[in-house]
C-alpha cells in the first residue's frame, strides 16, 4: 500500500533564486514531468522511518523525497543497483539533492542489507559516482542568514530543516569527508564567507578519530573560506547517534525547536572535548594508500578479492570479514552445526561436516579477502606490500559469530521429504529440513507425482517388495514390512522427533544379512554401508555417537553385533537432541539427532531397554546351507540395486507422497512403541496406504523373547507366587527358601545370592527396583506395610484381565496388627527396632 498515488516530486531545495526549481529535480529523476512509473510519493514504511528521525512528511515532500518500487523509479545513475542486486533492493528511499550552483545530485537508500560494496560492507546509502556525487547540497538558503548549519547526514539535515530557526541556512554533507573530492575541498564552501558556522557531526565524533578529524578539517576549510566563526555542536549519545535521533525522541515540536536552539547555543570550538584514540589522519592516509596499492596489484592479476587493512578499527575489520564469509560461504560451505561453526568437506564417500579448525578458518578468510598492514612501496614490478594475517583475537571474534550462519542438522544422500509432503530434489542446502542434500546427477529433479495413482502405488510396491526384497529369507511378513520401513525412515527422518533402531537379525552365517545391509545403504545413501563394530565400553560408545552426529551422518551401521545392551545407545535412540563434550576440548556441544541406526548380527541378543528401541528384521531359513541357494531374480543383486537406485528411491517417494495425498491417515495399533509413536504413525500409515501388511506384528512377543532379564524376573516372581500365593513374606524368609529349594528361580544377576551373608539385604534391594512392574506372565511384586519391628513385607499380585487390575487378595485387604511400641522416656528419643538384614526400603 502506498501513502499517495504518484503525485510527482517537488523541488529539493527552498532557495531565494528560482534557479533550482521543479524542472531540475525532474531532470534528476529522468522524467520531464517529475512523475515516473515505479516512483510514488513516500511508501508507508518510509513515512514511519522518517517520522522516527523527526522528519515530518510535508518537509520530506518539500525536499523531493520519494519511494522507488522498480528500476524505472530509480534515478538514472542508481539503476545499476537493480541490474546487480535485483528486486531485493526495493523499496528504495530516494533523496534528490541540489548543490549551491544548481547542479543535481542525490542519494538513495536501498532495503536494509540488500547492497554491499567490494569489501563486504553494507551500503546503507548510495550516491552517484565521480563528479556527480553530493558534496555540499543546500537544504535551506537564506539571503542574509543568522548563521550557517552544516549537518552530517541526509535525515539529520532534513530534521534540522524542520526545527532549526528559519533565519539559518542549512547545508548537508553525506559523510564526514564527503565535502572533499580527490583531496580538494568543495568550491561550494564559499557560501560560508562572512557567516558564523555551526558544524553538526554525529555523536561518534567523540569516539572515532576519523569522524573527529573529518569534522575538524571541515572547520579548518570553512575558516580558510573566511567564515566569521566556526563552532561544533556536540550531539550527546552513543555510537553514531545523530541529531535526528535526539529530535525523534522529543515529546513534541516545541521541545524539538528548543533542543535545536540549545544545541546551537552550546556549540564549542572542538568536535569533542578531547580527540578520541585512533589512527591519525596521516596514518589513515597511509593505510588507504596501502589498500589502494594492494587493490591495484590485485586488479593486475585479476584477483576479485577485496582488500582489508587489518590494522584499522577491529570492529570494522571483524564486520568486513564476517560479511564476506557469509556472502561466499553461508549455506554452501559454512553452517551453524552443533553449537559451533561447521564446514562441509567433500571426502571420498561424499560430503561430511568438519569442525572448523584454526588453520581451516584462516584459509577460508584468505579465500575471501586480501589482508594487508603497513605502508606499500612500488618495487617497479607492480607494488610490493606486506601482506598480514588478522590477529588471533580478530579471527576468533569473527568465528564467534557462528550463530548467524544457516543451521545444519545433517547431510543426506537422498531426496528428503518436507513437512508439507514436498520432496527435495535439488542438491545443496535445504532450509526447511536444515540438511545439506548431496544428490547424484540421476536423482536431481527426480519426478515424483503429487497424487500417485493406484497403478503408481502398485508398481512401487512390486518394485520394492518383489523385485528388490523378494529373494531374502524373511521369517514372516512383518519382517518384509520392517525392511521397507528401514528404507523409508531415512527419507522422512527430518519429520520425526525420534526413530527406533533397525536390527537385521540373521539365523546363521550366509543368511544374507550383509547383503540386506548393502541394499539398504545403497538405496538410502548411494554408498556401501560403512560398517563398524559396536564400541567396547560406554565411554567409547558416547564418543563414537558424538563424532558420527558431528560429521553430519544420518545413517549409522554396526555390524557383527552379538548383544545389544548399552545405556548410552538406548539414550541416543530416544534423544531428540544429543549433548556431549566436544572431542578434544572441555566445551559441550548440543546437536539435533536425525540419525537412523542399523545393526546386523546372527542370533542377536537384545537385552533390557534396548528391546523397546529396536525393530527387528529377521532372516530365517530351514536350509542347512543358505549360502548355497539358487534361483534368484537377479544374478547380481548388488549391481542391479546400484543401476536402479533412482527407480527404487522414486518408488519409496511415491509411497510417501501417496500417504500425504491420502490425508496422512494413521492405522489402528494393537501394539504401541513408546518414545516412537510419531514414527509408528507415519511409517505405519505409509505402509497401510501402500497395502503392505505386517507392520509391528509380533513385536510384543519379540520383545519378550529378547528380554532375557525380563524372563528371569518373570520366572522368579512365578516361583514366589507358587511359594507364598497371595500371602506376605520377607526378604529373609525368601532368601532362606531360595537356599534350600532346588527348584528355586533366582533374580537375574543374583544366582550366587545364597552364598552371601547379605543375601536378604541384596534380595530386598533387587525387589525394590522391580516394585509395581508387571511382567509378561501377569505378575508383579509390591511392598506391603511394615510389620512387627519395622520389617518390610512383600507380596505377589496377579493381574486380572477382566477387572483390568490386580486380583484382590486377603493379604491386601486385611489390616496388619499394630506394631508394639516401647514407652518413651523423658529426655530420650524413642528407639526404633530394626532388623538390618530385612528392613530394606
UniProtKB/TrEMBL annotation:
Biased composition regions of type Polar residues, renumbered to the chain: 8-25
Source species, domain of life: Bacteria
Spans annotated as Disordered: 1-29, 267-294, 803-841
Protein name: DUF3854 domain-containing protein
Source organism phylogeny: Bacteria, Bacillati, Actinomycetota, Actinomycetes, Mycobacteriales
Amino acid at each position: 500500500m502506498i501513502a499517495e498515488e504518484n503525485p510527482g516530486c517537488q523541488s529539493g531545495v527552498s532557495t531565494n533564486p528560482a534557479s533550482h526549481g521543479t524542472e531540475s529535480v525532474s531532470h534528476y529523476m529522468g522524467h520531464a514531468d517529475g512523475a515516473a512509473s515505479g516512483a510514488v510519493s513516500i511508501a508507508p514504511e518510509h513515512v514511519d522511518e522518517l517520522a522516527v528521525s523527526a522528519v515530518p512528511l510535508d518537509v520530506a515532500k518539500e525536499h523531493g523525497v520519494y519511494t522507488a518500487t522498480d528500476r524505472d523509479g530509480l534515478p538514472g545513475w542508481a539503476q545499476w543497483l537493480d541490474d546487480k542486486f535485483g528486486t531485493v533492493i526495493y523499496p528504495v528511499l530516494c533523496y534528490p539533492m541540489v548543490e549551491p550552483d544548481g547542479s543535481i545530485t542525490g542519494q538513495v537508500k536501498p532495503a536494509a542489507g540488500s547492497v554491499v560494496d567490494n569489501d563486504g560492507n553494507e551500503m546503507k546509502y548510495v550516491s552517484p559516482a565521480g563528479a556527480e556525487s553530493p558534496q555540499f547540497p543546500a537544504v535551506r538558503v537564506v539571503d542574509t542568514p543568522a548563521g550557517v548549519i552544516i549537518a552530517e547526514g541526509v535525515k539529520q539535515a532534513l530534521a534540522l530543516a524542520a526545527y532549526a530557526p528559519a533565519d539559518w541556512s542549512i547545508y548537508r554533507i553525506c559523510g564526514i569527508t564527503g565535502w572533499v573530492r580527490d583531496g580538494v575541498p568543495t568550491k561550494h564552501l564559499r557560501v560560508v564567507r562572512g557567516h558564523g558556522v555551526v558544524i553538526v557531526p554525529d555523536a561518534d565524533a567523540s569516539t572515532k578519530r576519523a569522524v573527529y578529524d573529518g569534522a575538524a578539517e571541515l572547520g579548518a576549510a570553512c575558516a580558510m573560506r573566511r567564515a566569521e566563526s566556526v563552532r561544533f555542536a556536540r550531539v550527546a549519545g552513543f555510537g553514531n547517534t545523530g541529531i535526528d535521533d535526539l529530535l525523534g525522541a522529543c515529546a513534541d515540536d516545541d521541545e524539538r525547536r528548543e533542543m535545536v536552539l540549545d544545541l546551537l547555543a552550546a556549540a564549542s570550538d572542538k568536535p569533542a572535548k578531547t580527540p578520541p584514540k585512533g589512527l591519525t589522519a596521516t596514518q589513515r592516509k597511509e593505510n588507504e594508500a596501502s589498500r589502494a596499492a594492494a587493490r591495484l596489484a590485485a586488479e593486475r592479476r585479476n584477483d576479485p578479492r577485496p582488500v582489508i587493512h587489518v590494522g584499522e578499527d577491529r570492529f570494522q575489520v571483524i564486520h568486513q570479514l564476517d560479511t564476506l564469509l557469509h556472502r561466499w560461504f553461508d549455506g554452501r560451505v559454512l553452517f551453524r552445526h552443533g553449537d559451533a561453526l561447521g564446514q562441509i568437506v567433500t571426502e571420498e564417500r561424499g560430503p561430511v561436516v568438519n569442525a572448523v579448525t584454526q588453520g581451516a578458518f584462516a584459509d577460508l578468510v584468505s579465500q575471501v579477502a586480501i589482508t594487508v598492514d603497513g605502508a606499500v612501496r612500488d618495487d617497479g614490478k607492480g607494488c610490493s606490500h606486506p601482506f598480514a594475517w588478522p590477529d588471533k583475537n580478530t579471527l576468533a571474534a569473527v568465528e564467534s559469530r557462528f550463530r548467524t550462519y544457516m543451521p545444519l542438522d545433517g547431510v543426506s544422500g537422498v531426496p528428503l521429504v518436507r513437512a508439507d509432503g514436498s520432496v527435495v530434489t535439488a542438491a545443496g542446502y535445504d532450509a526447511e529440513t536444515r540438511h545439506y542434500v548431496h544428490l547424484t546427477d540421476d536423482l536431481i529433479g527426480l519426478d515424483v507425482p503429487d497424487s500417485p495413482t493406484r497403478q503408481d502405488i502398485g508398481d512401487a510396491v512390486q518394485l520394492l517388495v518383489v523385485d528388490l526384497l523378494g529373494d531374502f529369507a524373511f521369517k514372516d511378513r512383518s519382517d518384509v514390512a520392517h525392511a521397507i520401513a528401514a528404507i523409508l525412515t531415512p527419507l522422512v527422518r527430518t519429520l520425526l522427533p525420534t526413530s527406533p533402531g533397525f536390527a537385521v537379525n540373521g539365523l546363521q552365517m550366509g543368511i544374507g544379512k550383509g547383503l540386506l545391509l548393502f541394499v539398504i545403504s545403497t538405496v538410502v545413501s548411494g554408498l556401501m554401508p560403512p560398517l563398524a563394530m559396536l564400541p567396547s565400553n560406554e565411554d567409547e560408545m558416547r564418543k563414537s555417537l558424538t563424532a558420527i552426529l558431528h560429521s553430519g551422518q544420518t545413517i549409522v551401521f554396526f555390524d557383527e553385533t552379538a548383544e545389544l545392551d548399552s545405556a548410552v545407545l538406548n539414550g541416543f535412540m530416544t534423544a531428540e537432541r544429543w549433548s556431549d563434550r566436544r572431542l578434544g576440548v572441555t566445551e559441550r556441544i548440543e546437536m539435533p539427532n536425525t540419525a537412523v541406526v542399523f545393526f546386523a548380527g546372527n542370533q542377536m541378543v537384545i537385552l533390557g531397554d534396548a528391546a523397546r528401541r529396536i525393530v527387528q528384521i529377521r532372516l530365517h531359513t530351514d536350509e542347512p546351507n543358505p549360502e548355497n541357494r539358487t534361483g534368484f531374480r537377479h544374478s547380481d543383486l548388488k549391481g542391479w540395486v546400484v543401476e536402479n537406485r533412482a527407480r527404487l528411491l522414486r518408488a519409496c517417494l511415491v509411497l510417501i507422497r501417496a500417504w500425504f495425498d491420502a490425508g496422512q491417515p494413521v492405522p489402528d495399533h494393537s501394539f504401541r512403541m513408546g518414545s516412537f509413536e510419531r514414527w509408528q504413525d507415519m511409517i505405519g500409515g505409509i505402509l497401510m496406504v501402500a497395502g503392505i501388511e505386517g507392520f509391528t506384528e509380533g513385536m510384543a512377543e519379540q520383545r519378550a523373547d529378547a528380554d532375557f532379564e525380563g524372563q528371569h524376573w518373570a520366572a522368579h516372581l512365578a516361583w514366589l507366587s507358587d511359594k507364598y500365593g497371595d500371602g506376605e513374606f520377607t526378604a529373609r524368609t525368601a532368601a532362606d527358601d531360595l537356599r534350600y529349594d532346588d527348584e528355586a528361580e533366582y533374580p537375574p544377576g543374583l544366582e550366587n545370592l545364597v552364598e552371601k551373608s547379605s543375601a536378604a539385604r541384596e534380595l530386598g534391594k533387587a525387589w525394590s527396583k522391580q516394585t509395581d512392574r508387571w511382567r509378561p506372565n501377569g505378575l508383579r511384586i509390591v511392598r506391603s506395610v511394615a510389620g512387627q519391628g519395622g520389617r518390610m513385607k512383600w507380596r505377589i499380585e496377579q493381574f486380572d484381565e477382566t477387572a483390568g487390575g490386580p486380583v484382590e487378595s486377603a493379604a491386601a485387604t486385611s489390616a496388619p496388627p499394630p506394631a508394639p511400641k516401647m514407652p518413651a522416656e523423658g529426655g530420650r528419643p524413642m528407639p526404633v527396632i530394626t532388623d538390618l538384614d530385612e528392613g530394606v526400603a
